[in-house]
Write a structure and sequence with these properties.
Layout (H helix, E strand, L loop, with lengths): L1 H19 L10 H5 L13 H24 L15 E4 L2 E4 L4 E7 L2 E6 L5 H10 L6 E3 L5 E4 L5 H38 L5 H34 L2
Antiparallel strand pairs: 1-2, 3-4, 4-6, 5-6
Helix pairs in contact: 3-5, 3-6, 5-6
């Protein structure tokens, strides 16, 4: 009888603890579980053609800007201040573009001159140029100026660089056409959902094609100009 009474008391105490601390009934998810990526991709829901066009133009323009950035890194065999656009220097713990920290000029077609505003960072600037992928050797003088001699390139190398420019341009155009595809799908969905009319859909698709053609043409112009620079001795 006593044992039965003790058992009942134990069960009651257990139930009381569960009521007071309900969180203890659950096992917290592991870090591995929390770190898993979501399996459902998030998609932008557009409410009008204007939104689709604005988003598409913004994404296409970023593709154009990326092509420009990549082309700057290709040497033409002649000195240009833009050659150092991607060089970053550590300054008080932060990576800072060199062109914001120094005066960059072109004394002649085969040489660049860099003059840091703060003479105490000349060594850091030299180190940053060495660490870049430009393949240029910096030489500093006693006044704190840094000189970079730009070597000439052979005819075969010029042709090879010209092909690289074309490849970069093609990548940019593919990116733009992919954005166009997304935009077209979004516009057709608006029509399917009866948000816009069939005529509005046709106008939107026409606008998307014109936007694509304009920015593809811009990339072709940029690449052609760069190729001309490379092939000009």
């Amino acid at each position: 009888m006593a044992s039965t009474k003790n058992l009942l008391v134990g069960v009651l105490l257990l139930l009381l603890l569960l009521c007071l601390e309900p969180a203890s009934c659950f096992v917290a998810p592991s870090k591995a579980f929390l770190a898993r990526p979501a399996t459902v991709a998030l998609r932008i829901v557009f409410e009008s053609i204007d939104e689709v066009e604005m988003d598409s133009e913004d994404r296409m323009q970023k593709s154009v800007d990326k092509v420009k950035e990549n082309l700057v890194s290709i040497r033409t065999g002649r000195a240009s201040v833009n050659m150092l656009d991607r060089v970053q220097v550590e300054y008080y713990g932060a990576m800072t573009p060199l062109n914001q920290m120094a005066s960059i000029s072109v004394p002649n077609s085969q040489q660049l001159m860099v003059e840091p505003y703060d003479k105490t960072i000349v060594g850091d600037v030299v180190k940053a140029i060495f660490a870049s992928d430009l393949g240029l050797t910096p030489n500093e003088d006693d006044s704190g100026k840094i000189y970079l001699n730009v070597p000439t390139i052979t005819e075969d190398r010029r042709k090879e660089l010209s092909k690289q420019c074309k490849a970069m341009g093609e990548e940019g155009k593919v990116a733009i056409r992919n954005v166009r595809r997304d935009g077209v799908d979004a516009i057709k969905k608006l029509e399917k959902d009866s948000v816009i009319s069939k005529d509005q859909c046709a106008d939107g698709l026409d606008t998307m094609q014109k936007l694509t053609d304009r920015l593809v043409k811009e990339i072709e112009t940029i690449v052609s100009k760069k190729e001309k620079e490379i092939m000009t001795v």
